[in-house]
Amino acid sequence: MASRRRFIRNSIVAGAAVTAGFSAFAGMRQEKWISNRPPAKQRKFQSRAVEETIREVKSYLGETELAWLFENCFPNTLDTTVNYSEKENRPDTFVITGDIHAMWLRDSTAQVWPYISLTASDGRLKDLIAGVINRQVRCIHIDPYANAFNDGPGQSEWMNDLTEMKPELHERKWEVDSLCYPVRLAHGYWKATGDTSVFDASWAEAMRIIIRTFREQQRKDGQGPYRFQRVTGWQTDTVAGAGYGNPIVPVGLIVSIFRPSDDATTWPFLIPSNYFAVRSLRQIAEIADTVLKDGILSSDAIKLAGEVDAALALYARAVHPQHGEIIAYETDGYHNYNFMDDANVPSLLSMPYLGTIDRSDPLYLRTRSFVLSKSNPYYFSGIMGHGVGSPHTGSNRIWPIAITVKALTANNDYDVVASLKMLKSTHAGTGFMHESFMKDDPTQFTRKWFAWANTLFGELVLDTYRTRPGLLKEV
């Protein structure tokens, strides 16, 4: 997510205007289900494998609203947000989030992730994803503390932030997950394709930069080089403690000054992101061992993963009065804990999706029960839906991403079917997912063009089609 405050306000107004005549519009769609995709000549990138997958799933689903939503949403990243080229004879792909023309390391990974499984039959799609990996490596070299980048040097509205901004940066909010997502993409791409061409000297150096940055933010030797403040009326858009965050005890966890929502953390040890860091470091080590034959890089990654993992065992869990021992969202080493969850990924809910805990682990199940209850201050329930929201969009707004993640991490068929039904009934007739919607009125939504939410919904439909196709017939 970006610092998207004005986009939220504008999207609410636009959503209301767009949906003013939705009753007639929805009736037309239900009769014909006309695609909402851009015309073929206006699409940013076309993939044969993606188009074949859309036809296959639609053929199974028939002329239904779910098929129409899948056709609109699954290719949305390719249709509208990617710019593919070659630089120095290597693939290069810049990926915008949608309504903000900047590339987030997190969002760009999440947007193309559902296509990885299709690369075996589509060389162009494989090159596109390799291009994202290559671009992310370049971004890490520019500044490992930045979360979002311009397509080359440019002017950002955040150039006056009180931090070390550079012309290539759109925004410089330090979030642990920003360095985890590129590792996830590279590792997933390698496992799916067997292609090791992305693992060049620049990639290996980027991994060393990640390890160095994580160590700096363990803050064993002081506060480190990063600080951030912004002149703003939004409390969560700036940082306490003169830009270093609230105090911590250096127990081995990694400080994340911002959450995946791009909102400032309350307690700087963001626990889901630290779990993600452990997994990412072990993936770095696997690639270093197997592909690069770099024992030093592998050893450094494994050592740091062990330190963070050991600290998580001591500091990630706390006893909740209603739910027992669960994983908290944030802590500080002083045994202060923030009992909440945020819709943005990594979240507590999403941990099995990212491979940081087993979905059947009793600890996760207790944590999941907490997240999906009124004990979580950002769980909202209304006439039109129920699910996790975010401080980023305020009270009573539910995020489709969280509904989708609930299904992707489910242990039962009911959660999958119920989540798909809810997503189908809350897109406000647009044929696309949004950032958030009001629990009693989905026509009051934020971000009408949000590619991550769209493609993630497509991933859920495709995953269900591949593993439990009969469930789609119940939606």
Tell me about this structure.
With 475 residues, this protein is mainly α. It is built from 15 helices and 15 strands. Helix 3 (48-61) packs antiparallel against helix 4 (65-73), helix 6 (105-112) runs antiparallel to helix 7 and helix 6 (105-112) packs parallel to helix 15. A three-stranded antiparallel β-sheet has the order 3-4-5. A three-stranded antiparallel β-sheet has the order 6-9-10. It has one domain (5-474): Alpha/alpha barrel (Glycosyltransferase), CATH 1.50.10. The radius of gyration is 21 Å and the shape is globular.
Structural class by sheet pairing and helices:
mainly alpha
- State the distance separating the first and last CA atoms: 29 Å
CATH architecture: Alpha/alpha barrel
The CATH C-level name is: Mainly Alpha
Work out the number of β strands.
Answer: 15
Predict the CATH topology: Glycosyltransferase
Uncertain stretches of 5 or more adjacent residues = 5-30
Strand order of the largest sheet: 3-4-5
* Main sheet makeup: 3 strands, antiparallel
Number of helices in the DSSP assignment: 15
